[in-house]
Design brief:
5-stranded antiparallel β-sheet, single chain, about 15% strand, alpha+beta, two-stranded antiparallel ribbon, about 55% helix, about 240 residues, globular
């Protein structure tokens, strides 16, 4: 038999998952990825297969990748939180201003594409209201056109900035997941340097610098140090 088609591989992976062979399911989904296939559903299923196969680092990696394509998806967010609860590192996050978190939550309600489409719709409405202001004879209609245009411009700025923010987050290559069961974070990019603290599989870090085979990372509580690049995988 010749090489399996993408559709056959997808069916094979799903069947393996249903039958409880999570390792085989993950391998088949990975084969699809290696062929250039990528989608929220594929990342999500891969995350589920790895979670069931007790490979928490990989599960968290793919749940995060799925979430970038569908930031408003509650199932992905819930499964990610369950996987994160299985990690060994308990890191206290630096508190942020509540408004920042609220704005991010609103932005995550839709994808980059959805925000872009909405901004174009708002722009079209704004142009129609501007025409109403310029061409209407009645004062009440001109007032509606004027204030409607102002509101549309404001909404256009907000939706466009949300679309840009989602795109920036989607393309961000500074977020990574620890893949090693445990790895020492060093004071400098050198194996002989001092161990600052230890991180375990599944912990998300932010890459702040790169030097050869090493990455400087910061964790959620603000602590930073150097890790070997091979111990982490970029989301």
């Amino acid at each position: 038999p010749g090489e399996q088609t993408a559709e056959q591989l997808w069916d094979k992976a799903n069947t393996a998952y249903i039958n409880g062979d999570f390792h085989a399911a993950a391998d088949a989904y990975e084969e699809l990825l290696s062929r250039g296939v990528s989608s929220m559903k594929l990342y999500y299923n891969l995350g589920n297969a790895y979670f069931k196969d007790d490979r928490i680092g990989k599960a968290i990696l793919y749940y995060n990748r799925a979430l970038r394509l569908a930031p408003g998806n509650d199932d992905i967010r819930y499964n990610l939180s369950v996987a994160e609860a299985r990690t060994k590192d308990t890191i206290e996050r630096i508190p942020e201003f509540f408004l920042v978190g609220w704005v991010r939550a609103v932005r995550h309600a839709m994808s980059c594409t959805a925000w872009s489409v909405l901004s174009l719709v708002v722009l079209a409405c704004g142009l129609a209201l501007a025409l109403l202001y310029l061409l209407a004879k009645r004062l009440s209609l001109r007032k509606t056109g004027f204030y409607g245009t102002l509101a549309a411009v404001l909404l256009f700025v907000v939706t466009t900035s949300f679309a840009a923010g989602e795109r920036r987050e989607m393309l961000d290559d500074t977020q990574a997941v620890v893949m090693s069961l445990s790895t020492a974070v060093k004071s400098s990019p050198d194996n002989a340097s001092t161990d600052l603290f230890v991180l375990h599989e599944g912990t998300v870090v932010k890459i702040t610098d790169r030097l050869g085979d090493w990455c400087e990372v910061t964790i959620a509580d603000g602590k930073k140090g150097w890790l070997e690049s091979r111990t982490i995988e970029v989301i």
